[in-house]
Amino acid sequence: MERFFIFLIIALAAAAGGGAAVVLYEDEAALEWGFCEPANARYFAAWYPELWQQQVNPIPAQAKLQWDDMNFETDAAVGVYMGEQTTGGYAIAIGRLELQAEWLIATVVSREPGPTDMVTQAFTYPSHIVTVDKSLLTRADAVPIGVRFISPDGDKLFEVMF
Prior knowledge:
This protein is α+β, with helices and mostly antiparallel strands and about 160 residues long. It is built from three helices and eight strands.
């Protein structure tokens, strides 16, 4: 049902404005986090399982546990990985994913614990994956050529070509 509504929104936006940006995913709570680029961050996106495996292969298995049920026949995937952290309290997410002309624009947000925060004393592997129905990405007027990852301020962090 959720995919139907996303498709309906895209269809209406395409009919109304053609080249206007279309929001495919948004997490309003995460968008309030802000951004501090982690030193070991990785950004990845793929339409096909071979490209996905190539991009995520270097990432530790602990971070990839949630990624086993990907269906690349119907979905494309966009993800971020913060790198291994020595404590809890760290997070990274795609706060918004939107289609702008030939690019998917992924706004990356992150948070880290403050100096007085109580955190888990364990290694953590913050990551986030967003899947998007491929049929939503192949509108007649724009087929994305890749994903541009940006900070909330609009600074380009990384680009991945499909």
